[in-house]
Amino acid sequence: MPTKILSVDDSRTIRLIVGKAFRPYDVQIVEAANGEEGLAAAVREKPDMIILDVTMPVMDGVTMLTKLKENPELKAIPVIMLTAESGRDNVLQIAKIGVRDYLVKPFKEDQLIEKTARIVSLQKKPAA
Amino acid sequence: MSDLANYQELARKYGFAPKLESASRLTQLVARQDSDVDEIARVINKDPALRDRLLRVANPNAENPVEYTVETVEEALIRNGIGCAMVLAMGTPLALALIKTFQTMLTLKLGLIDRHHAEPLEDEHLLGTIGFSGRVVGAVYLRMNRSSARTIAASILGLKPEEMNDAGEIRDVAGELLNIMTGNFKSNLCDAGLDCRLQPPDVKFSTDPCSPVTPGGAMERMAFRTEHIQLFVDVTANPWSDD
Predict the structure, then answer these.
(1) This prediction's pTM
(2) Dihedral of the alpha carbons of B109, B111, B116, B117, in degrees to the nearest 10
């Protein structure tokens, strides 16, 4: 069964880049454009890992992370924050709520793969 | 453990790039409001790149240093106000984030160039704007010709420029570029105690080449170039807003 990763970002560009980064791997990407959609997708899809932006309309990443950690069925899902914001207060608040890693934009696809591989199993797709 | 020590430990754990000391120091000084001009001038004079940029901001109509009427950092700060220093402090992380984005996500070496040596914008060009409010009020404007916008979008999405015909996708990529740039300088401002909120990016095609200066504030105009791509970034801010 492929590893299932939920990518939550209001930017379609970032969701496309995340999808492109995992294309060589046996990974199923599920996308959501804000925290509210992300929470619903987490409940529905039970992903192995979540890649989460901070600043988003409707529900931001910090609120989604808080709600995720309050839900006994979802709180164990590891989260990597992927955001341009690395201000002290933001990082301290997010770390306190609980994330496995934090990647600051701009980022290399290799960095995302490396951080993901430390958390979930990433198997290369067999050559076609 | 203090918040700062906690943050430094997390920054090491997550592998954050170190912050630029001169820009952080300058932001902290401007944020204090009671810093004197000499103190701010000392920080700027220690960094030749910051000094050159301040003098460019203070002499907006001069095409080269020979035409400068404001010739020293102290004079620039007295005549143009501390807002000038604020714009510089914000422009530094913004420019670095833009250059780093091109390096990491497009594998292109983008360089800051003299705006007077840049090729002019086409009549209709892409304009991205992000406003911010809070203890600092202002906006960042990103402008580029259609061909540059298409090349950037194609490169980021792993396509060929001729495959990149969806104007919505081109706008979305430009909006994300703006998000990345402004997110980086927002962190710098917030760390200095100047909390501010970013508005969502507004990206459109425009025929108006003028970026309005924030009332009571200053503006820095920057131009960047790499092969086939040219970008213009204007930053305007007023750090003494009551918003």
Answers:
(1) 0.87
(2) -40
